[in-house]
Write a structure and sequence with these properties.
single chain; alpha+beta; OB fold (Dihydrolipoamide Acetyltransferase, E2P); 5-stranded mixed β-barrel; 53% helix; ARM-type_fold
């Protein structure tokens, strides 16, 4: 590599247009985003939007035509533009050479070396090879000899360079059949004159970022199908939309398998993705699944044994790679604690934004980090799946309780300020922050009114059983009547852990003379979670009701038993509560026999026990 580096500071040209010809950039921006028809909002501060903005700058420099017919790069290379930008003759020569020699294509990765900073690329359309000097790509692909990259190359001072960031990279080990098909299509699609390059570059961007009307049958005729769904689109999905997306992926894969029976079964693909070790590249796993001899033969769409993917045309091959990319990104991976890569990626971005929010510094995070064990889950180990692994710092309950007491009783101005700021900083990000908040409510609230105010603010953010169990508020006991009125309001909520908190508070704080049949009927009247399965969040309400009635049968059997004689509860809760009470050592044999007689052995037609 020559020590004389070429001038490739294209950002200086972009900056000049922003300052001197902003209207030109504005018109180019509108045209670019209209033609790409992007799924990603370029104004969002995300990696996707930043990448798309850099691609726009490259397209503007190399492909956009000014009123005089030149591109901005050609304008800067000519004498008039070069003088306006303050460029030397040597710098203008480098820009002119880049404009003349540019190659826009999809390339196979043949090899890469971080030591030499070289990446060897093979044009998928022509078979021509390029030794490309690129520090970032050679480091990322070091030792790699497969995969695809779509980008623009320029030749300046006897060396090839990437003009900007790759439009996209994806895992694919080429077979000779695939290379042949892409070379046959090259003359028609890839290698025209200058305007053809501009069109090709836009096509590649549209392929990756362009809006798609749908998936499956509606998308089969769309030549601009993305090579995988963007992270921005994933993050816009709610749980139901993501579940539908995963179901559609499975249906699409099985559609390919119906056409090409030699492809492995769905669960083979699922297991391969789930069990990947975090060191093997997606390219290698893709090759193991679909690149072996088992995918050739007469059932492989014209392929022959050992030729890998069975698809005979570029579009079907590209769509299948896009499908695998989506599968990789949305299926759970064991090495990610059961999360998918798109969940982990979104989590890391949220962590970065949360911890580096300069407008709202959070000094308590430093203290929490000091008592955290990042190699474990602390007392959050059984809070899954409500809590994601990246939301856990890994703090033991006793350590968190000690910090909560320190915050609650701290007299210094710094402690008081940190405590008040923390309690007002809702919603929190980390599991331990929510657990700390729950502990502080019990420690800080001195009157029922203070407790109710703090609980009204916090309960909507409680989303798991472990945090809910940290909410024990002694201040509510000071005015049972006022507390009961508020608990009756919370128990009617549609929020799972607001209802669970109300039930458990009624169980713990209303005993003896404070306990009434009215309270028991209030809990019996809850319907949230009646039909919940063990994996549903609503199941935590059902378990709370079983716990409540099991305890009350022991504490106040004569008050509660009439509800069981009336079959006021669903049969499952009815029987579970009775069995809890029967196991208690505080129940004598006479009562134990009476409770056994109340167990409903089976649901009968029209039985009130099943409500």
């Amino acid at each position: 590599m020559s020590s004389a580096r070429p001038f490739m500071q294209y950002s200086a040209i972009i900056e000049w247009f922003y300052q001197q010809r902003e209207t030109v950039l504005g018109e180019a921006t509108r045209r670019f985003f209209d033609e790409v028809d992007t799924d990603v909002d370029p104004t969002l501060p995300t990696e996707e939007a930043d990448h798309l903005q850099r691609l726009f700058h490259e397209w503007f420099l190399f492909d956009y035509r000014l009123e005089d017919g030149r591109t901005p790069l050609e304008f800067a290379a000519d004498a008039d533009g070069g003088r306006a930008l303050g460029l030397t003759r040597s710098q203008r020569d480098d820009l002119g050479e880049a404009a003349r020699t540019q190659v826009v294509a999809v390339f196979w990765v043949v090899g890469a070396s971080a030591a030499t900073h070289l990446v060897t690329l093979e044009d998928a359309g022509t078979g021509e090879r390029y030794e490309v000097y690129d520090v970032a790509s050679s480091g990322r692909l070091d030792g790699c000899d497969d995969g695809m990259i779509a980008c623009r190359l320029v030749h300046v001072r006897d060396h090839w360079y990437m003009a900007g960031n790759p439009v996209m990279e994806f895992p694919l080990k080429p077979t000779e059949r695939m290379k042949q098909v892409m070379r046959e299509n090259a003359g028609r699609e890839m290698r025209d004159a200058s305007e053809g390059k501009a069109s090709r570059f836009l096509d590649l961007i549209r392929l990756h970022y362009g809006r798609k009307p749908g998936r499956g049958e509606d998308a089969e005729g769309d030549d601009s199908a993305q090579l995988g769904t963007s992270q921005q689109v994933f993050e816009a999905m709610d749980e139901q939309a993501l579940a539908d997306f995963k179901r559609n992926l499975r249906e699409r894969y099985n559609g390919y398998r119906s056409k090409y029976p030699a492809l492995p079964e769905w669960w083979t693909v699922w297991d391969a993705v789930h069990d990947e070790d975090g060191r093997t590249s997606p390219m290698d796993i893709f090759g193991r699944l679909f690149g072996g001899e088992n995918n050739g033969g007469e059932n492989a769409g014209g392929g022959s044994g050992g030729n890998g993917l069975p698809f005979a045309d570029e579009k079907e091959c590209r769509d299948f790679v896009a499908l695998f990319t989506d599968l990789w990104n949305v299926l759970p991976h064991r090495v990610l604690d059961g999360m998918s890569p798109n969940e982990m990626f979104a989590g890391r971005r949220r962590i970065e934004a949360y911890r580096h929010d300069h407008a709202h510094p959070r000094p308590w995070l430093d203290r929490l980090d000091m008592i955290a064990d990042p190699t474990g889950y602390g007392f959050a180990f059984d809070a899954f799946p409500r809590v994601r692994p990246y939301e856990i710092l890994g703090i033991e309950r006793r350590d968190l309780e000690a910090f909560a007491k320190e915050l609650a009783v701290g007299k210094s101005t710094d402690f008081a300020h940190m405590r008040d700021e923390f309690l007002g900083d809702l919603p929190h990000f980390y599991f331990e922050e929510n657990a700390l908040h729950a502990m502080l409510v019990g420690l800080v609230a001195k009157t029922p009114d203070e407790a109710i105010c703090m609980l009204d603010a916090f309960l909507p953010h409680v989303d798991n059983r472990k945090v809910c169990e940290c909410l024990k508020v002694p201040a509510l006991r000071k005015d049972p009547a006022a507390a009961y009125r508020k608990l009756a309001e919370w128990i009617a909520s549609d929020r799972v852990y607001t209802v669970r908190f109300a039930i458990l508070t009624l169980m713990r704080d209303f005993k003896g003379g404070d306990f009434t049949l009215e309270q028991a009927r209030l809990v019996a009247g809850v319907t949230l979670g009646d039909d919940a399965s063990i994996i549903d969040p609503e199941n935590d309400v059902k378990l709370a009701r079983e716990w409540y009635f099991g305890v009350k049968l022991v504490e106040s059997p004569e008050t509660v038993i009439p509800l069981f004689e009336e079959h006021a509860l669903p049969r499952e809760i009815h029987n579970a509560a009775l069995r809890r009470a029967i196991k208690s050592k505080r129940v004598d044999e006479a009562l134990r026999g009476r409770l056994r007689g109340l167990i409903v052995r089976e649901a009968t037609s029209g039985s009130e026990a099943t409500r």
